[in-house]
Each structure stands twice: as C-alpha cells, then as structure tokens.
UniProtKB/TrEMBL annotation:
Transmembrane segments: none annotated. This is SAM-dependent methyltransferase. Keywords: Methyltransferase, Transferase. SUPFAM superfamilies: S-adenosyl-L-methionine-dependent methyltransferases (SSF53335). It comes from Brevibacterium marinum. GO terms for molecular function: methyltransferase activity. GO terms for biological process: methylation.
Amino acid sequence: MTTATTITTLSDQQLNSLSALVDGSTRSILSSLPLPSAPRCLEVGAGNGSVATMIGEHLGGQVLAIDLDTTHMRGSPGVEVARHDIRQGVPAGPFDFIHARLVLSQIPARKAVFAGLVEELAPGGWLAIADAGLVGNLLVAPRESDHEVWRRYNDAAYRQLGRTAGHDYGWAERTEVEMFDAGLADIAAEHLVPLARGGGPWAQYHANVSLMLEEELLAGGLCPEVLDRYRAMLADPGFRAHFHSLTYTVGRRPTR
Ligand SMILES: C[S@@+](CC[C@H](N)C(=O)[O-])C[C@H]1O[C@@H](n2cnc3c(N)ncnc32)[C@H](O)[C@@H]1O
C-alpha cells in the first residue's frame, strides 16, 4: 500500500469523528447560501455521507455523492451514491451546489479538479470548499520535553509524510484567490482554528491519525518512544493545542 493511499484511507470511526466535529460549520455555511429549491448538488469525497444526507434533508434537492471508497456511506433520500475518482473528471452538471470538504488539499491534481468543479456549476450555482491548514501550535505541554515530541511528530507526519503524499497545507487559504481568478462572484471565506484539549474529540481524532500512519511514521525514522509519548500527551487533560485550521470558502458562478 502506498503512502498516498494510506494517508487518505479513513476508518468509519475517523469519518464519524469528522462529521461530529465539522458538520456544524457545514450546516451554517449551507443555511447562509441562497440556493434554489430542489437544487442539483454534487458532494465530492463524501466520506460517510453525512453532508450529502444533510443537503438532501435541508435543501430537498438531488445529491450525487461521490468518493473513491463508498463503503462508509449509507444511502438516504435524495442521495445517489457513486464510486468515482474525481481525478478522472468531474461528473457532468450543471449543479446548483458543489461541496468538497477536506478533499482538494489532499489531491496533487487539485488545480485541475478545481477547474472542473467550476466548469460544472450552473449559472448562479455555488461552490463551497473546506480544507485544513497546518497550524501545529502546542499551547500547553504536560511536560517540558513534550515540545520536542510535538516537533518531531509534526515534522514526521506533516512536513515529511504529508508532503510526500502531495498534501498542500496552504491550499485552504489560497482557495479564495483561486475562486477570484476563476471568475466566481460573491466570494466569502471563514477561517476557524479549533482548540484541542487533551482527551477531547480533536485530540482523539489526531491520536487515531497517528495510529493509522504508524507504519509509515516508523519507517520514516520516527522513534516508537516518541510516538508513544505523543499519544500519551494527547490523552493528558493538561494538553492544549491548535493542530490545524479549517477554512470554508464559497463563491458562485455569475449568471452571465
Ligand atoms: C478527509 S476525508 C473527508 C470526508 C468528508 N468530505 C468529510 O469532510 O467528512 C477525504 C475523503 O475524500 C475521499 N477522496 C480522496 N481522494 C479522492 C478522489 N481522488 N476522488 C474521490 N474521493 C476522494 C476519501 O476517500 C475520503 O472519503
């Protein structure tokens, strides 16, 4: 299994954590957009399908939910699930709403995919993209030596593994410029930096990421002791950190 495959392969548990942690932001973005009734929607990299379900329920439209791996998705009214690699092309629109959360920053061909998404928007259709940026601030360390553990883990997981897999942690904040350059209108962006507490849901999410990447991290030279201490630190109630930011950017295709 390649690093790129492993790093984008998420368990049910991870996808459910993401839904629990991020669906609130998605719901508020969705409700802020003036979408037509019964919109035609595309959900890219749908994961467990929570957003596709939300779109189907709240907007009452037809949703095409695509992912490389559809085994985590449950069907729901108004949602058509399809296994599809977005790098092979964007399904034919036109769509009134296209949503991609935590997908484009992981795909090296993100610029071509982005252009394809814009192309498939209906006149007046909205594109909403959310991606994570790397913050990596350890705010409160249970032990002084944890600063070094944090630094070594972050170097191994993000600066080495993530970059090798083609992740772009700057994409999230550049999406607004990309939308502007693509001629979209009514562009707006929101930038959140979640605070993670030891033992809390974001810390657990990142501890799980470290388990999923364990083989690659050790193969890349990270010491098992550092990995063990990293997980113990994330479970310590005294730990506080900003792991990453989440930027939600929306824009619409002009009607003419
Ligand atoms: C980090 S998860 C995010 C899942 C969901 N969007 C969410 O925010 O809860 C990334 C998702 O994108 C999917 N994915 C990655 N590369 C893809 C590709 N080339 N085409 C379609 N889906 C892809 C993965 O299978 C995974 O479900």
